[in-house]
# Entry
Amino acid sequence: MNDQATHLPPATLWRGDALFAMALLLAALVALVAAYPDEGILSGAYGWRSALFFLVFGLFTITMGYARPGFGHVSFDRVAQVSSVLVLGPYDAALINGLASMVFPLHRLWKGVAPFDVMLASLHNAGMMTLIVLGCGSLYVYLGVPDPLMELDMRAGGLLMLLMLSMQGLNDAIMAVMMYLRGKDPSTMLNVFSVAIELASVPLAILVAIVYANMELPVFVLLLFAMSLGMLVLKQFAEMRNKLEALVEERTEELRIKTKELEEQATHDKLTGLFNRRFVDDFLQREIENARRYDRPFTVALADLDHFKRVNDSHSHAIGDKVLSRVAEILTNRCRKTDVVARYGGEEFLLCFPDTTTEFAEQICSQIKTVVEKTNWNDIGLGIRLTISFGIAQAGIDSRPTTILSDADTRLYQAKHRGRNRIVSLPGGKV
# Structure
């Protein structure tokens, strides 16, 4: 199995992954030239016909692969790589598999993929496959293993397994670097299904090499037919799995969004989008405790629209709802980001000012009072005029949510009693 590079978006034209792909190919060419025996290309027992066969066989195994969303093209060409090393040797096998990996992305040109993207994928694949087969195949030969085509014993089998593992390890290392350069998580390469295919590749590769070496054509054709069916089944299974994973991800995202919406509904007022009373009750407890613990001021203001019932009675509740939404915008815009604005009920709003004294809270409320009074409401309903009253209270040493709200409510009542459109922040009704 091999993880081939996918096409890249145009934005990656001068990114590090493009340089990485070219560096891979350059390193592969240098290594191939340096490692080739003096006899030259295809100087072993098998000639150009065998090379052509493994080139086609390599393309076949890559084509029978499948796509992993967000990662790349996962193919079954480890069989072709290992079997070609056994038959042709590491040098010719590296050249053949590098060419097969280079040719594979070219079909994307007919699908409308940008030529640069196709070229970059070809460079990456060719460099990666050449280095993997040459490096791991040379290590296999260096260890002096018995020829598995002639003598398949435990030692040869173990070293063949080492060949496969070293191929996959180097493959994963290169792919991890590429994914890092593209800003993706390399851990996504870990896949149990892919590992299972990898483990099954070694015995299948040995079988291909033995059958090919003995030139038993009917058996070989039957073997390729069986491999084709097996790969098609695996491909279909992988595609179904990918679709299932995509469906699960889609449903998970829908659930996340729905959960977020429910959380919003639990803590926010549906009409205005402000925090609701349920949220405020918990928030007040925390802020009062923090104010007491760190000796910081904490002030709240209870606001009420004056004569709001007249708006509902004269214009309708629908118009009244629009007015409330507009007032919510005014409150939010005039308060600071650190402040909390909530709809406390009906036409009542609660403003919470952490780390704020009564005097500064009065300034903010005074600005809001002026804006509400001077706002032109004709776009919502002709003849609407509004004012707003405030009752302000600051947390004390022994304050609790109920006591500070009660103090603010008392002062709001005083503001209403004294004529509305005013702010009361001290006992006795003094501003």
Q: What stands out?
A: The longest strand covers residues 298-305. The beta strands are 2-4, 66-68, 72-75, 298-305, 340-345, 348-354, 388-394, 423-424. Confidence is low (pLDDT under 50) at residues 6-14.
